[in-house]
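Technical annex, item 7. During the second reporting period the consortium partners agreed on a shared format for inverse folding records so that results from different sites could be compared directly. Each record opens with the tokenized structure and is followed by the designed sequence. A conforming record, contributed by the partner at site C, is shown below for reference.
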């Protein structure tokens, strides 16, 4: 029996892995979009659709450190603006739709940091969105339940909880500002 789309995509990722370059990001995006376009009849994907986990690790590369997660999200689930620390990330939608906004971090004349929203992109089945280190974004599930894949360069739990490198934002008086440390 041949490899599943998941096994083939992760094997290709391991084979091409290296320093962050435009070529690596493009190749990784292709692999994650292939996952999002996989047949729902593949056993690994059928299991996800059956179980609809809020979060499930699908793959972890022990040598390179990259991680692939699956997330089922209900309509209207909103994840406020945040970055991913030193990591770059690719989100892909397999089912449903997600709106992903991007932001710039700016300082006003008084030295106060706030976010300015650049745009919002509607990401549908088979499509992916890339965020590089330092990029700030939010997500809103506009059509659910949605199945999203999140490919990260490194383990974001460690990046967030242990290394404290992920920045999250809260809204105060209608303005997005960094959460207090």
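Designed sequence (site C submission):
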């Amino acid at each position: 029996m041949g490899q599943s789309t998941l096994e083939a995509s992760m094997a290709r990722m391991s084979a091409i892995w290296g320093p962050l370059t435009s070529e690596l990001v493009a190749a990784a995006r292709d692999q994650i979009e292939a996952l999002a376009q996989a047949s729902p009849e593949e056993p690994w994907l059928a299991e996800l659709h059956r179980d609809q986990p809020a979060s499930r690790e699908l793959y972890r590369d022990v040598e390179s450190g990259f991680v692939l997660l699956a997330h089922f999200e209900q309509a209207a689930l909103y994840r406020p603006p945040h970055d991913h620390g030193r990591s770059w990330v690719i989100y892909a939608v397999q089912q449903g739709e997600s709106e992903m906004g991007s932001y710039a971090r700016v300082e006003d004349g008084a030295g106060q940091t706030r976010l300015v929203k650049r745009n919002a992109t509607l990401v549908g089945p088979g499509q992916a969105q890339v965020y590089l280190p330092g990029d700030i974004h939010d997500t809103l599930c506009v059509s659910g339940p949605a199945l999203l894949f999140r490919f990260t360069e490194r383990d974001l739990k460690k990046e967030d909880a242990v290394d404290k490198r992920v920045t999250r934002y809260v809204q105060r008086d209608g303005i997005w500002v960094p959460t207090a440390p």
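Residues 5-178 form a domain with the Jelly Rolls fold (CATH 2.60.120.10). Residues 22-36 form the longest helix (15 residues). All partners now use this format for quarterly exchanges.
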